Amino acid sequence: MSGRGLILGIESSCDETAAAVVERGTRTLSSVVASQIKTHARYGGVVPELASREHLRAIVPVVRAALAEAGVALGDLDAIAVTAGPGLAGALLVGITYAKALAYAQGLPLIAVNHLEGHIHAVLLHELETEKQVPSGAKAQVDFVGATAVMAKAMTYQSCPDTNQRNLAEEAALALVVSGGHTHLYRARQERGAWSYLLMGRTVDDAAGEAFDKVAKLLGFGYPGGPWIDALARFGNPKAVPFAFAQIKVKAHLAGKVARTKAAKTAPIAELEPRFMFSFSGIKTAVLRYVELHELRGEAQARAARLFAPGVESRPPQSKEEALELCPQQVLDLVASFQCAVVGDLMKKTFAAAESLGARRILVTGGVAANRELRARFSAEAARRGVRVSFPTLALSTDNAAMIAAAAWPRFLAGEFAEDSLSADPSLALGR
Ligand code: KG4
Ligand code: ZN
């Protein structure tokens, strides 16, 4: 234990094995991510059994690399934080089991973090690091509510992180978590150091990132699909195909029509407002219809065979010439129209939810938050409305462990440690 407030974060909920050391929830000393993209690319999606196997292979070297990069030893750590869910059960278990063993061996507290809360803290961590709000100099003893007496005595910190997050303490922010597994809207609020979340809306079927991945696969592009669609859409006409989103009906939820979906497992939806609900399976089907109607399927299959041929290293196109070598203008137009519609729908509901809360701040996070069109349009709309929108860095947008260590810090201060019985919770819900 160094008393520096060093938390080792471990993340293994899906297809990235990640470890990071973050000081006091505000300063990233290291962030190592081992991606399994190559393993899953040929299947066009994450294969759970392969993911668990790859996590088992990577976890020890990734944690070692994170400690080495941070220049700290296991004995310097003050706590270990791990993603407890939501995610793939077998994948989560690898991180949890390893974190438990390390914590037990080192006599350190273990902190369970919700993956979605981690994504929200990726934005906050980025803001704290870029805005350099961390006061330095005078030493301040942190108030350890609930932490053990031994630890409270042992630790003296350089600054109080709660003051850094004061901006958000006074007013609620609206957070959009938009990734391959989630499209959720939360009210996020910090009171006396502790964060609380209220679910305001979410997808009733596919997540937005899942729609990007499925459309990319359908058109014969690489995995994950988001970066491909993002790169290709720049060269297409977003008005070429008029995709529309239907208003979600309350009756459908109450009738239990969505109860079997992946997303529906995480929290009750009956009391959520339909205007803040998302649905992305319809647009995916609309793209499929377009592809069939215009006989683009054969060409997509040929493209996939080329892009995934053994030994071929494919990357998204960087110029219009490269894009046109891959596919005709008609496909570029389709991709641009798809992305434009998805971003438009995310924007409409996010800003409406923020307005209903009176929130002046919007946090957009998760893998899809890396999307260029999304960032540009959210930023322009926020400026027009006079509200502030923040995103994580590109590296912090997709899965990483720095966000897990950062989210753990307020819990560490509050002494909220995991029980020995901690296990993976694939459908762990965030907030109420
Ligand atoms: O947060 P993340 O790494 O993992 C999950 O928790 O799901 O998000 C991965 C998702 C994938 O669906 C991927 O296609 C999408 O984020 N993604 C993007 C972009 N980069 C990643 N979607 C749109 N545009 C991007 N630039
Ligand atoms: Zn994620």
Please outline what is shown here.
This protein has 432 residues and is of the alpha/beta class. It is built from 17 helices and 10 strands.
- What about the largest sheet? 5 strands, mixed
N→C terminal distance: 34 Å
> Count of helical segments?
17
How much is the average pLDDT? Answer: 87
CATH architecture of the largest domain: 2-Layer Sandwich
Under CATH, the homologous superfamily of the largest domain reads ATPase, nucleotide binding domain
Count the E strands. Answer: 10
SSE run: EEEHHEHEHHHHEEEHHHHHHHEHEHH
* Class by alpha and beta content: alpha/beta
Strand order of the largest sheet: 3-2-1-4-5
Determine the strand fraction and express it as a percent band. Answer: 15-25%
User: Rg to the nearest angstrom?
Assistant: 22 Å
Q: Give the cofactors and ligands.
A: 5'-O-[(R)-(carboxyoxy)(hydroxy)phosphoryl]adenosine, zinc ion
- Pick out the low-confidence regions: 133-169, 254-267
- CATH topological fold name of the largest domain: Nucleotidyltransferase, domain 5
Total domain count: 2
Helix content: 40-55%
CATH class of the largest domain: Alpha Beta
Apparent shape: globular
